[in-house]
Amino acid sequence: MGLDTIIIIISALVAFVLGYFLRKYLAEAKIISAEAEAKKIIEEADKEAEAKKREALLEAKEEVLKLRNEVEKENRERRSELQRLDRRLVQKEENLDRKIDSIEKKEEDLNKKDLEIEAVKTKLSDIYNRQLVELERISGLTSEDAKQILLAGIEKEIQHEAAIMIKDIENKAKEEGEKHARNIISLAIQRCAADHVAEATVAVIPLPSDEMKGRIIGREGRNIRAFETLTGIDLIIDDTPEAVILSGFDPIRREVARIALERLIVDGRIHPARIEEMVEKAQKDVNTQIREAGEQASFETDVHGLHPEIITLLGRLKFRTSYGQNVLKHSIEVAHLSGLMAAELGVDIQVAKRAGLLHDLGKSVDHEVEGPHVTIGVDLAKKYRESNEVIHAIAAHHGDEEPKTIIAVLVQAADAISAARPGARRETLESYIKRLTKLEEIANSFEGVEKSFAIQAGREVRIMVKPDKIDDLAAVRLVREVAKRIENELDYPGQIKVVIIRETRVVEYAK
Q1: pLDDT tens track for 430-480
Q2: Cα 353 from Cα 238, distance rounded (Å)
Q3: Which of 7, 182, 255, 438 gives 20 to 30 Å between its CA and that of 21?
Q4: Could you give the 3-state DSSP secondary structure of residue 454?
Q5: Would you say the C-alpha torsion 60, 66, 70, 75 has a positive or negative sign?
Q6: Distance of alpha carbon 358 from alpha carbon 355, whole angstroms
Q7: For the packed helices 388-396 and 373-383, what is the interaxial angle rounded to 10 degrees?
């Protein structure tokens, strides 16, 4: 190692030591300076904190003083309010005391007056009893007899006034009701025109020749016997040229027999086996016609959602007649009329149409089920879960029940309109005469009736009354009673007008 190297190392060590001590000195100087600075800052902070503390104490003292003043002010105000309320209470107590004194004084006065009134009542009662005894002695009647006479007079006067009032109300209601009803019904009739078909219980089948009659009868009559047994219809072969007659009251069986016989005539092969085959095919065809007729009626009246069995029952009405009127056509017409009148009155049109279409549903099976068609129709409607409004309309359309809904009244009116159209129905002479006789019997059964006349084919009955027994007001009551009894005891299409005629004649002879 050389001398230069040693010198360099020593120089380096000296420089390092000098640098170390220099840095240490500088660091200590900075620390001392920082400590002095920090001490100065702390002192200033202590001074500032002390100043703020004094300020805060002053502000707090001022706030406390302010709050104390406010509380004292509020207390003074409350004390003044309490004093004012005390004065008012004292004043009210004084007023109440004065009122109580006044009321007590009035009670004393009233007690005195009550005693005076009781004394007057006693005195008046004695006077009344003495006068009553004197009146009974003078009149010769007891008080009960006098009451009865007065009540009888008052009752007669009230009846007279009530009859006049009833007559006025009825006249006014009839004028308004008839006018409105006439407009609705005439509009419905004008807008609904239905076909009327006259049905019969026989059907005439034309033959190509009289030779066909022998083939229809068959050997020893076996063909005609087989035909009548299978169809339940009488086959009449008489002297009518080139025609045979089917007779029977069941229109469906008659239709089956007609179709089967026409097909046998066209086919030409007539023997028991062929007859059975043709009758079976005809029954299937008629069942198809029934279903299609029911569907067509539902479509034509816009009544949907019917049970399939109800549609079939409606179709059966195509082959059912009432007084010669086709029941299916009649039901469709009633549905349309009910719907039109319901639209005028703002009632549910669909329910009215449904009730009108189903009102004669019982007639589809009344030949097979016992009971009136109204009861059968109600049972069928309940069975197939029709609404209560429809069921009630069916039950009430002939007056068996009192109509409780507007729908029931509309169906009843539509049924009468359809049945009363000119040419819609025909009636046997026997039942017609019986109805007229019964109508006159009902009218003649009332006291004071002299004679009666059924006119206009039973649509009107005119009653002549004895003027000395029936006055004008009694005539008003009588006409209502006659109409009510006719409704309860007679079955008739449409309506019957009841007219009472009271005539007074004065006769004198010049001699």
Answers
A1: 666 778 888 889 989 998 898 898 887 677 889 999 888 888 888 888 889
A2: 47
A3: 7
A4: strand
A5: positive
A6: 5
A7: 170
